[in-house]
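User: Please fill in residues for this 273-position structure.
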């Protein structure tokens, strides 16, 4: 069994997002919609995941114009990121199977959708790929397929991670970037964005069994307080493995925006009933 967490460059058009949800059939576990980022994250898993991924991204490519997109999150494609993910403890799926699904989908993107798709995974990380795209490395894809409407899609193969946002108040964007720079590591990819009078610390926990949301929340909170700021709220983006949740004191799940109903295992059990 594979999971796919698809990042779509649309978080404001509720009608289109509903159409995208309906295209996913039985594989859809969760949708996280962020109007500020103008981005939605669709979590899919199950036996029909590849079929539903294709249905979702086909509709997104047809209906989203990246050239008109406005949002604070960096992006390169109308369908920005499509990772295939190994779910530890839920199946005997190997990373090689995720790589095979990734490579097959890249060929389908280019041949059927006529949209350039580039790979990340064991060979190179998503941040490394984004650097190459910023440098406009034309060797990554067929330039004849590129259009400003669809952009470029990153298709990956990886292990499970946790996407997590922490919003802080009473700090400048520069101070937010100092927090991000201080905490960035091999286990934590982290950026700071400014909006209204707040700073969002946007995190990808690459090794969530080692560095979990509680650890990151405490670290951000401590640094923010040292600068005269404070945490406003925490936000889980998508779902997290139950094993990561179980490692955190249940008394603080609410503060951290966590809970059993937000685990991959719980959502899968609903689909199976």
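Assistant: Residues filled in for all 273 positions:
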């Amino acid at each position: 069994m594979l999971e796919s967490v698809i990042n779509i460059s649309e978080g404001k058009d509720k009608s289109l997002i509903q159409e995208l949800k309906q295209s996913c059939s039985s594989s859809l576990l969760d949708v996280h919609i962020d109007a500020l980022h103008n981005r939605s994250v669709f979590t899919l898993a199950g036996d029909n995941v590849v079929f539903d991924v294709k249905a979702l991204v086909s509709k997104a490519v047809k209906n989203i114009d990246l050239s008109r997109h406005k949002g604070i999150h960096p992006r390169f494609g109308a369908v920005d990121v499509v990772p295939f993910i190994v779910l530890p403890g839920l199946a005997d799926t190997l990373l090689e199977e995720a790589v095979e699904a990734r490579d097959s989908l890249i060929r389908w993107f280019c041949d059927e959708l006529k949209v350039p798709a580039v790979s990340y995974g064991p060979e190179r990380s998503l941040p490394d790929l984004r650097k190459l795209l910023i440098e406009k490395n034309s060797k990554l894809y067929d330039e004849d397929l590129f259009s400003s409407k669809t952009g470029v899609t990153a298709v990956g193969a990886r292990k499970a991670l946790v996407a997590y946002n922490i919003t802080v108040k009473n700090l400048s964007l520069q101070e937010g970037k100092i927090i991000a720079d201080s905490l960035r590591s091999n286990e934590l990819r982290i950026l700071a964005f400014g909006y209204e009078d707040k700073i969002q610390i946007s995190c990808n926990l690459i090794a969530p069994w080692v560095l979990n949301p509680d650890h990151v929340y405490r670290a951000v909170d401590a640094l923010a307080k040292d600068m005269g700021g404070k945490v406003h709220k925490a936000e889980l983006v998508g779902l997290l493995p139950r094993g990561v949740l179980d490692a955190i004191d249940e008394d603080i799940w609410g503060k951290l925006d966590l809970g059993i109903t937000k685990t991959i295992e719980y959502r899968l059990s609903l689909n199976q009933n």
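For context: The CA atoms of residues 179 and 220 lie 7 Å apart.
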